[in-house]
Amino acid sequence: MTGLTGINDYKRSLERSRAALTRKDRPRTFTMAGREWDLLDEVFAPTFSASTGVAMELLGLTETPTVPRRGSFLEIGCGTGIIAVTAALTGCDRVTALDISEAAVRNTAMNAARHGVSDRLRAVHSDLFDELAAGESGGERFDTVYWHSNFVLAPPAYHYKTVHERAYVDPGYRAHRRFLADAPSYVADGGAILLHFSDRGDLASLHAIAEECGRDLRVLRSRPVREGEETVEHILFEITVH
């Protein structure tokens, strides 16, 4: 791993993780994208970071669609379920939301019920794709496979202290390697694999892993966001097979 400083420093991201869990103003409910959402303990709090709102914009979920959205949507790392629920509300007829955090899975199910989409949204406890059967062997495939990744690179030997830290850093980019290698098995013909990354992460390492996995990364959209005294570039990549 290259030496990282400033906005790329994984220790700063871990400090943000700890602070987000213990803040006295951590809400039980919050408003985003014009809707109310439940927030459980131990789940990533979108109110303390610009990244979820940016993700909604990069995916076009904050825009009024000119035609109804259709098809199936798979989200990795669903957290409170805002993106998965909004995908269902804006026209996706089959949504699967996965998270390694059991609290996040419960949180997503709560918000699906709150917004009346439980009939077409399934929340599953899973480490990446582990609880899904690969599409090429008769399992599920999706029109869109999406992951707003834990894009900050931590040392390979780092061990998570809480499940909440998994939303912030990825030791040795092991999860990114698995996603890049495995995602094509779950996308339907003509579908898209999308990865939300940012320059808080190590872009050179991401591109190197993609090349090793035989994947191409194409920038679909990007947006600079001011976070305190820093500007962070958020990037939505489309992943394709060489």
CATH architecture: 3-Layer(aba) Sandwich
**Biggest sheet descriptor:** 7 strands, mixed
Q: SSE order in H/E notation? A: HEEHEHEHEEEEHEHEE
In the CATH hierarchy, what is the superfamily? Vaccinia Virus protein VP39
- Beta fraction: 25-35%
What's the shape?
A: globular
Integer average pLDDT: 92
Please work out how many helical segments DSSP would assign: 6
Task: Report the strand count.
Answer: 11
Terminal CA distance: 25 Å
Kindly report the CATH topology: Rossmann fold
Strand line-up of the largest beta sheet: 5-4-3-6-9-11-10
Structure in words:
The protein has 242 residues and is α/β, with parallel strands linked by helices. The chain contains six helices and eleven strands. The chain has one domain (6-241): Vaccinia Virus protein VP39 (Rossmann fold, 3-Layer(aba) Sandwich), CATH 3.40.50.150. Helix content is 26%, strand content 31%. Strand 3, helix 3 (82-89) and strand 4 (94-99) form a beta-alpha-beta unit. Mean pLDDT is 92; it is low at 1-5.
Top keywords for this entry?
242 residues, alpha/beta, Rossmann fold, seven-stranded mixed beta sheet, two-stranded antiparallel sheet, disordered N terminus
